[in-house]
Structure formats: structure tokens, C-alpha cells
Amino acid sequence: MLKKLQKRQIYLLAGAGLCAFLAGAMVSAPQAGTVLSQWLNLGQSKPEGLSEADKVKSVVFSLLSESVPERLTKLQEIAEKGSSPDRERARYLLASDYLETSQGKKALGLLVGLEKDYPVLAPYILLKQAQSHDILGEDRKASDLRQKVVKEYSKEAAVVKAIYAIAQPKLYNQAIAQFPSHPLTWEIIRKSLKDNSNQPNLQLILAKYAADEPGIVGVLDQLVKQTQLKAGDWELIGSVYWDNNQFTKAKDAYIQAPKTATSLYRIARGLQLNKQQDQAITVYKQLLQKFPTATETGIALLRLSDISKGKESITYLDEIIS
Prior knowledge:
By secondary structure, this protein is mostly helical. It folds into 2 domains: 2-190, Serine Threonine Protein Phosphatase 5, Tetratricopeptide repeat; 200-321, Tetratricopeptide repeat domain (Serine Threonine Protein Phosphatase 5, Tetratricopeptide repeat).
């Protein structure tokens, strides 16, 4: 069973492709930009990214838009005869292309020693070496390389990929603590929650960092059963419910959250959508009284004009105009 799980994880790590990796498929959004600029900026001291002129000079950069078959010969030539840093870039990209087609031996020939020539992406190179060994059936070598990443690059986002592939629960807390916004950390958390759903700290991490992910509403539905949640937790829960169009559930969460213009508006709107008009009017009026200059107050006046009757409705419209 463990072997089967590890193989599935390996395919997940390998299947995204280099371009997806550079775009952030295996790193969190803030880290993706850093990795990409580092990848393109190997020999420079500034990490901001390549200038347009530098992009023109980098032949490998121009090849990223080509298909794997189209760029194969060009990358081979640059990897063999090119000058640094494009030579190292070509080796990395070519090895990644080989791995996409399970050519582990060819990939490994390009990757061995590249971590020394290409230190800015050393942990990712080691992970690709491990992937090559997996393809070749050399599980122990692959495991040793991933353990090396965990040991020597613990502050790099690449460590999450290593921990995920190693699949040892004792390492999971490291990924969760250091890289809660990493998509593979979310996978680790989901697996842990399947084993034990009574872990509100992990559910809150998903609520904070994976609010747009499929299944997040189910996570919140379990989370709200907890009795030790703080007001700030309820505010987060309400926000995520709201963003996922669960307005009644959002209203219930916001009732237990700090009273802000946003929370009051969303409570009132949730009541209104739930056909509880009188209660909605009461909360809208609280919003007007407590936060008269807030953005939400103007919207609340519009809502009040819609659900109020007669002269009172006109009064609210007059307030908007004035």
C-alpha cells in the first residue's frame, strides 16, 4: 500500500511539467515569482528578474514557448556547447523534458553535478535527480536525495515536495509550520484530516490559505462544530463561506465574529437572503449607526430602500443621494 501511494505521489510531482512548475504549480504564489526570477537570473546579483534585453539574450528563455519536440535539438546543442548561464538552464530544461517522457537515464546524465553549477535551484535539481532514480527503479538513491533536501534545504519551498514524496508523517509538521500556503502542504493536511477530522488548527490553515480550493466548504462545516473557536476564527470562517456563496452559513459565523462594517453588512444580507426581512432591517440599521461612513453603509442603504415600505424606503434613497 505504501509503495502504491508513493508511486502515485511521484507521478503527481512529475506530471505538472516544467512550465507549470515555474508558474507555481508546486510552489505557493509568492514563491513562484521568486523561483522563476532566480531560474532566469542565475548569474546576476539582483533577484528582481530579467530585463527585456536579458530575455532577448537568453536563448533558453525563448524556447520555453516551444513544444518539447520542437526545442529538443536546440536544447541539446546549448547544453553541450553553450555558455553559462544558458548552458545550465538548458540542462535543467532538457532534463525536465526527459523526465516528462520517463527517460530517467538521460535526465540523470544532465542533472548530476548541476546543483553545484546552478546553486540557486539546487534543491529542485536534487528532487529531479530523485525523480530520475525513481524511474530507474533506484528507490534508495531517490530516498537519500529527498532526505538530503529535507536536511540541507529546510527553509526552501522545495522541502515540501521532498516531504510529500517521502510520505513520513513525522515530517509533516515541518511543511505545515513553514509553508502553509504550499499546495502540497494542503494535500498533507487533507490526508491528516481524513485520518482524524478533529484538528481545528489544520482546518483553519486550509480556511486561511486554501479558501478557493474545492472541498473547502466541507472543511468549514466540520470546523464550525468546534467549541474552542475564537472571534477571529469566526471572522475567517464567515469570510470563506461568503466567498464561496454560502451566505446563510456566513451569516451564522459572522454573528460570532467581531462587529465590523463588513460583518454587520454580511449578517444583514444573509438574513435578507434567508427571507428574514425584519431581522435584516434591524442589523442594517445597526450598521448605519455604528459605521456611518463605511463603504458597506452605502450598500446597506440601498438594501434598506429595497425591503422597506412607503415613505421609509424613499427616506433611505434620499440619504444615498445626499
